[in-house]
Structures are given as structure tokens and as C-alpha cells.
Write a structure and sequence with these properties.
With 257 residues, the chain is α/β, with parallel strands linked by helices. The protein is globular, with a radius of gyration of 17 Å. Helices cover 47% and strands 14% of the residues. 45% of the residues are buried.
Length: 257
């Protein structure tokens, strides 16, 4: 079984993580998407748990969540799919979802499943640092699951250091204080934000998300941090399905891998 922490020990740069909405475009699309992404050289896959109000996500991912929910995707279905997928791949997987559906399903129940299936991390944007420390830290530690925190170029040094101390796998840096799905290139303000975070010398590896959609944006963030997370660009690709996943990944990473 490949290990999420080991990934960052073995590979210090040019790490590519791709976000996939579970249940999109079809209820059973997840398995083939994950297997194809792994074959194409992706290092880490973030599996999105569809939610009706994904506040950190832009229109592309919101629309994919809405379709996935209509297709019948929920955490019970996702768990069954992931059990089957885990029999076919050892690629590191991270679950991304919001507190409401996770809480309703049962946090301990989900963390136990993650432990059993070697899913070592979760991203839950609407759990604050304070809430995590007070209510959830002990249970995440009980099952050996890392809660991956999100930071921005506006996060204070004090907060960055606090999150860095709590993090056990990697930190998710959003490229700007906005929602996912930006399709432009990085400007001076983005670079200034990257330089600010870089100078803090965080002990935890950093992956950058929001706005990574081509080779240029991928290469820029990899100059500053350990790698990038591609979300909306992949969802748009899936919805159009004009070419193979291998070509999508190759267009992103070029000869960097």
C-alpha cells in the first residue's frame, strides 16, 4: 500500500494531485477515473464527497456535485465504491467534503472506514482550527487520519504556524482568497502571496490549489511549493470528454515527471 506521508518523503517537488467528484459524470465513474489517473502518472487523488452547498467551490464543481447527487451518490454508496477501488489500486487517496454530510454519516464511522481502506487524509473546509482541536483532534488521531488544513496568502503568520504544528501530511494553499475554478494565469499578487507563504519555511509540505489548469500554472506553483492540486480543470475535462485522461495529465505536467 502506497503511503501518503511516504509520498512527500520520496518526492519533494512536482507532485500532482487531481480532484474527482464522486458520482460524476455517472454514478459509477469514480473507479475508472481513479485508475486512469493513476496510470497517467498522477501522485495523489482527492475524492470529492458531493454536497448541495459546497461553499469553497466554484460553479464547475458545484454543478458536478449537483449532478452526482441526482445520480444517487452519497457517503454510503461512496464507501462501497472505494472498497472495490482499493482492491485495484494503492494510490494515495484523500477525501474532501463538508462537515454536514460527514457529521450526519458519523465522523468516527467514516474515519474508521478510512483507516481500514488506507485513506490517510481528509479535507473538511468548514471545520475551524479551534473546532478541530476541541472536538475532533483526538478522534482523527485515534484512527491515524490527517485533517488537511486550508491556508491562503492572507493567513497570518501566527495562524500559519499553528496549522503547521497540527498538520501531519500536507497543507492546502489556495492561490487566492476566492472559490475554485479560476481560469486565468497567475499575476503579481499571486506571486507575492506565494513568496509570503514560502518565506515562512513551513515544516509541512504544501500543495497549491485553485487556478491550476495548464502546464504554465502547474510549473509556477512547483517553483515555490511541493506541487499542485487540479480540480475544476479536470471536472471540465470530464464533462467534455474530448480526449483521454492520459493526454489531460500530459498537457499539465509535460516532462516534469
Amino acid at each position: 500500500m502506497k503511503n501518503l506521508k511516504q509520498l512527500f518523503i520520496n518526492k519533494k517537488s512536482d507532485i500532482l494531485s487531481v480532484f474527482v467528484t464522486a458520482g460524476y459524470p455517472k454514478l459509477n465513474s469514480l473507479e475508472q477515473n481513479i485508475l486512469d489517473l493513476e496510470k497517467s502518472g498522477v501522485d495523489l487523488i482527492e475524492v470529492g464527497i458531493p454536497f448541495s452547498d459546497p461553499m469553497a467551490d466554484g460553479k464547475t464543481i458545484q454543478d458536478s456535485s449537483e449532478i452526482a447527487l441526482k445520480n444517487g451518490m452519497n457517503l454510503t454508496v461512496l464507501i462501497q465504491q472505494l472498497k472495490q477501488i482499493r482492491q485495484k489500486t494503492t494510490i494515495p487517496l484523500v477525501l474532501m467534503g463538508y462537515l454536514n454530510p460527514v457529521y450526519q454519516f458519523g465522523i468516527e464511522k467514516l474515519l474508521q472506514f478510512c483507516n481500514e481502506q488506507h485513506i490517510e487524509g481528509m479535507i473538511i473546509p468548514d471545520i475551524s482550527v479551534e473546532e478541530y482541536k476541541q472536538n475532533y483532534k483526538s478522534i482523527f488521531e485515534k484512527y491515524g487520519i490527517s485533517l488537511i488544513f486550508i491556508v491562503t496568502p492572507n493567513t497570518s503568520i501566527k495562524r500559519l504556524n499553528e496549522i503547521d504544528e497540527l498538520s501531519t501530511t500536507f497543507t492546502y494553499l489556495v492561490s487566492s482568497a476566492s472559490v475554485t475554478g479560476a481560469a486565468g494565469e497567475f499575476g503579481k499578487e499571486h506571486i507575492k502571496g506565494f513568496e509570503y507563504i514560502k518565506t515562512q519555511n513551513l515544516k509541512t509540505p504544501v500543495l497549491v490549489g485553485f487556478g491550476i489548469h495548464n502546464k504554465n500554472t502547474f510549473n509556477i506553483v512547483c517553483q515555490y511549493f511541493n506541487g499542485a492540486i487540479v480540480g475544476s480543470a479536470f471536472i471540465r475535462f470530464v464533462s467534455e470528454a474530448k480526449y483521454k485522461i492520459n493526454d489531460f495529465v500530459s498537457d499539465l505536467i509535460g516532462n516534469t515527471k
